[in-house]
């Protein structure tokens, strides 16, 4: 039985004061309730202090990680740096990284490989843009993204990955994939994982849905057989909304 995950991606939002209050609020909630797995990805400068605040079962993730080990890469953050401050999860290949910062499938494959080698769990993002869905190419696009992201991931590595399907047309737009549309893609992703690894491994991998998840749609989405929780952007910035989504996954 896969335990659900609700992960919040704060993107480039919040001052430290605001972040601290939200982290404390979430930590209190998770400490006092029986919840699904909870992950929060705050902006990078807050990662260290955020891990101190999250004394509960909730975990802190980075929003991105470098494909390089170390060296002259101004502004980048390595897996080793993350590990040294006890951050053990990183979102990799978010659609904003792909579209705004030029990350390619190949780069994402390298980042995933580096993360796993360092013992960091990657949350591997994939998802099609609107034109690709309109032309019926969504499964082809997503499977190409995943084949590249998992190019160097062997069976052991596959046991330590999380996947997030985030149709780009649903991110930050208020438009959500219907539970049926999302389930169809999640099933296709699980089939791809079963083909590459084994059915048993595929059955263990959590596949999250992302794209305008909110309190009003979380339960319907999370009740689909292959949807194992959500990667939440906008609604994770508000304590009450995020807690309601955690409750839907618990
Ligand atoms: P959203 O973002 O929930 O605001 O659509 C999701 C994401 O980008 O991970």
UniProtKB/TrEMBL annotation:
UniProt cross-references to CDD domains, sorted A to Z: TIM
Subcellular location, principal: cytoplasm
Binding site for substrate: 9-11, 172, 212, 233-234
GO biological process, one term: glyceraldehyde-3-phosphate biosynthetic process
Localization terms from the record: Cytoplasm
Pfam families the record matches: TIM (PF00121)
Keywords for this protein: Cytoplasm, Gluconeogenesis, Glycolysis, Isomerase
EC number: 5.3.1.1
Molecular function terms, GO-annotated: triose-phosphate isomerase activity
Role: Involved in the gluconeogenesis. Catalyzes stereospecifically the conversion of dihydroxyacetone phosphate (DHAP) to D-glyceraldehyde-3-phosphate (G3P).
Oligomer and partners: Homodimer.
Family assignment from sequence similarity: Belongs to the triosephosphate isomerase family.
Protein name (Swiss-Prot/TrEMBL): Triosephosphate isomerase
Gene source species: Candidatus Ornithobacterium hominis
Gene label: tpiA
